[in-house]
Amino acid sequence: MVLAQGLGNSPYSSLGIGELYSPANVTNMGMGGVGISNASGFYLNLQNPALLAQRRRYTVFEVGLVGQSTGLSQNISNTEQSQSNVAGNLGYLALAFPANSRWNMSLSLKPYTYVNYNTRQYIAVPGTPYTAVYNYTGRGGLNKATFANGITVTRNFYVGAEASFLFGNVTNSADSRAILDPNGSTDLLVTHLNRVNYSDIVFKLGAAWRPKLNDKWILNLGATYDPQTRIKAQQTDIYQQTSLSGLAITAPDTLRLNSNSKATLPQQMHFGISLEKLNHGLLVGVDVGLQKWSEYRTADNKPGGLVDAMNVAGGVEYTPKPASNRYRDLITYRAGFQYNQMPYKIGGQTINDINGSLGISLPLGYNLVNHVTLSLVAGQRGVLTASQIRERYVQIGLGFSLNDWWFIKRAVD
Prior knowledge:
It comes from Spirosoma arboris. By secondary structure, the protein is mostly beta strands. The protein starts with 18 loop residues before the first strand and ends in a 9-residue tail after the last strand. The chain has one helix at 26-29, and strands spanning 19-20, 59-76, 79-100, 103-124, 131-152, 157-179, 188-209, 217-226, 229-243, 253-265, 268-277, 282-291, 309-318, 332-346, 349-364, 370-381, 390-404.
């Protein structure tokens, strides 16, 4: 199942609704995530629904797998503390097919966010010789089931829309303990558990224009818009006192049980431009995204402590000779970079994420229209200053694209 199991421990996932998965499929991952304006007849683009209209007779089924190795570091009392973890997840399942010569559809299922963190904090209790220990843990995330449509308006202009069912839950727990007894036999643990279940429909609009500049070059322009959305949420809040061994000291105090509320997801805008060389397998593109995360409100309708975010990505894709019959001429190579200004602000400083990527697609099967794609992304988020946590990561994506002429009405003589 595609559940938001996460890509390893990330303290930043404690903020908002968690870490957002990249909307790019494995193919686009290898070129910096660029995909708002550029499409391909062999691969499915999940970033701009309007680009579905550029597909023709082929139906494509795609599977993406994502794994990540992360190293976390932080300066604590002038000493660098580090840990590492490795995790993976099913990135997406997607199917696109033609409804007619001007209209294409797609169905996809993928994780949207993940929450996975476990942190501990020691604080001296003022006026006493005791120390308090606070443990914070979070698990869960949101998933998206999407139905998208792309329609050809004119020969080179396309529009698209998608509706997604967003669902999942996030559980955050915090416990506190004052260390009174070195053996812990008399210490009490106070635990607060908060669980929020989300389920609602969100929308995205897209447009793309593909004018021909001359006999050799085509210009691709694309844009998408996600409007601000209020999504349904059900909250449960429980407090309880226990011993360190887990023995209940008091009965659980349920403050809320499946209380209905709504959270606010922000509007997002993405723009892309790319140049494509006809019959030469060369494409160069740049994407820019703006996300108004300052508009985010929790299920309690409170500010989530996030700031507006933006990202810039650039990438290149090259296939030596697309019209050739030689296998090596049909291998596609990709490279890219990405700069992300995250919606997190720690100690008054914005968290930035910078990464570079490489990718390769190998054709397979009859007529070599199927592909297996491998993409590698390496980057760093945050720096070792103040209270920031530095994350250095290597992400690997493995994708399979299967093309065929499905849903064709057969003629029998």
